[in-house]
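Q: What would this chain look like folded?
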Amino acid sequence: MNNFLNKKYFLEKQKLQKKYFEDIIEENRKKQKKYFEDIAEENRKKWLEQLQKNKRMSDNIISELNERISKFFNILYELGWPAHRNMNLAEVKKVVDLYNKYGFDSIKNNIENYFIKKYDNDEILRIQCAWEQNQLLEYRIIILKQAIQAHLQGYYYLTIPTILSQIEGIIATAFNHSGQMGYKQLKDYCAKLLLENEAYSLDKSVKNLLYGIIYIKFEHNQPINSVLSRHAILHGADTEYGTQTNSLKTILLFDSLQEKITHI
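A: My prediction, written as structure tokens:
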């Protein structure tokens, strides 16, 4: 009888001990789980805070970059330059920083000299090569090649009116236009050709240049309110347009347009 009771006591004791240790283990497990959950939650909050911080930094960087590019395009427009696909962010920063430091009048010659050096004879010939590959220019390429040669030889008075006259021609070709083309029709075509999906873009820069500088109205024997007026030049009012700067501007403008018409 005593042995039975001892055995029963022993078994009960074992159960209690087992329950005791299981409770300790379970309590520790819950504590560990809570501990790791707290760490995970803390890390999640830190991660979210860092993510939000990075996003704010990214948004600020993008905003500053957009503002810088927009300002760059505005500076180019004031100088009568079209934005061009070969212009890069390093140039954007350089031009805007110079503008902010010295102002418009002080940097005008520096910017013009920089682009003249950048678009040297080799670069101009590469542009000509791209024109030769454009099938839409097939029937006018001889005109364009001679205009390029005139530029390379310094005959800027020949290059500028030649290329300006071809702008309307390639737009008419691109849209298969027939008959007389008025300014309103030209603007309609340009609106289709040059999209404005952003506050700043190459397309918008080219469009602004066409509307605000190239196709601006003029009157004979009156001041010409454009550094490169197509009408004033082709109608004989402007006789001082023949500079290397204006010639290069015209080539870059035409290059941007001829590239766009290949994607219609």
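The chain has three domains: 1-75, 83-118, 121-264.
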